[in-house]
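Researcher: Let's do a round of design. I'm pasting the structure tokens now; please hold your answer until I've finished.
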């Protein structure tokens, strides 16, 4: 990963973008793609679309990732000044207590900590994990009046952790799900434009995926591509506690993960695998027998059915403040997207032959 790519990724990961409050993250993405896209547009909820115009008679393909991250929201403020939480998406209640968090208010960030009873005085008969709605944040206020002067109901909250480079090409941080996907969509567009491919390429950064692929529902009706590649993260099984019977044998550094089954269109999957082989890009396979749990849910049913494929970034510790990916997988994925765009004109249609 070169310095420009890293700077873009680092800025995305350090910019808070919880579902429903994605404006700052989308601004980072839009400012980046404006440097090489022929057109960039946004809609009423903040979905962003960048376009590279290919040949007039060329195919149209789309690369998508979602910019939103899981988090919390201020549900209420009690008279003692403690902020009571609600979930944004599905944060992991097992890792939230005792963490530094930031409340993103209209007047700027307010630091806080998720309260945790000290181990010395907890009930010896058990150590249950409270639901998110039973957890609270201490912003240091002496009472409710003081807290309400700086924090409002509905303010979003994220973990305060940001990106950290680990050994080699491994990176840890919060919100990797799925800022890495929207990074890859942008980089795939850039590489396709530099290669002057015949296909028209759309790079899309959606909002509110963690709330049920809502942004993808909004944007999928705006255009009619021949194929869509949805980029998200997927679970690995290469760490203590990894579950191979659910995730398959997916590992960091093994390359992008091509989904098979469910929403994953078999012709698009084969085309992407061919592009990978022709470009010497290693890929991994993962089964999706029941669904993908991604924006593909919205794209593949749009307009009576749009050939859609999930290609994923291997990710450890999903929905925690310390998700881990390998940047080699990200670079390979961006190259793969561009390679697929470069070969898209070899297909008269991506429809199945019945």
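Researcher: That's everything. Go ahead.
Model: Designed sequence:
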């Amino acid at each position: 990963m070169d310095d420009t790519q890293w700077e873009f990724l680092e800025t995305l990961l350090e910019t808070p973008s919880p579902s429903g409050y994605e404006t700052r993250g989308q601004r980072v993405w839009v400012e980046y793609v404006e440097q090489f896209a022929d057109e960039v547009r946004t809609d009423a909820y903040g979905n962003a679309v960048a376009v590279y115009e290919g040949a007039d008679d060329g195919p149209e393909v789309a690369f998508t990732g979602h910019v939103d991250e899981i988090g919390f929201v201020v549900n209420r403020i009690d008279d003692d000044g403690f902020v009571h939480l609600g979930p944004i998406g599905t944060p992991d209640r097992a890792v939230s207590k005792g963490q530094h968090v930031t409340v993103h208010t209209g007047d700027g960030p307010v630091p806080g900590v998720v309260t945790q009873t000290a181990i010395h005085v907890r009930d010896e008969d058990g150590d249950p994990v409270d639901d998110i709605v039973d957890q609270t944040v201490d912003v240091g206020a002496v009472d409710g009046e003081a807290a309400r002067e700086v924090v409002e109901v509905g303010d979003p909250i994220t973990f305060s952790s940001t990106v950290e480079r680990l050994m080699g090409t491994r990176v840890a941080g919060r919100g990797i799900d799925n800022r890495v996907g929207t990074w890859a969509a942008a980089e795939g567009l850039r590489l396709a434009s530099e290669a002057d491919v015949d296909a028209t390429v759309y790079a899309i950064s959606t909002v509110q995926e963690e709330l049920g692929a809502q942004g993808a529902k909004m944007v999928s009706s705006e255009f009619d591509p021949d194929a869509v590649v949805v980029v998200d993260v997927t679970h690995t099984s290469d760490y203590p506690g990894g579950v191979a019977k659910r995730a398959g044998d997916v590992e960091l550094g093994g390359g992008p993960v091509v989904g098979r089954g469910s929403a994953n269109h078999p012709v698009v999957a084969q085309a992407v695998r061919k592009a990978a082989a022709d470009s010497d890009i290693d890929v991994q396979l993962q089964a999706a027998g029941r669904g993908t749990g991604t924006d593909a849910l919205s794209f593949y049913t749009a307009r009576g059915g749009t050939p859609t494929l999930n290609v994923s970034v291997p990710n450890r510790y999903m929905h925690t403040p310390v998700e881990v990916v390998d940047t080699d997988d990200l670079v390979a994925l961006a190259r793969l997207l561009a390679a697929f765009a470069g070969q898209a004109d070899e297909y008269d249609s991506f429809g199945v032959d019945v």
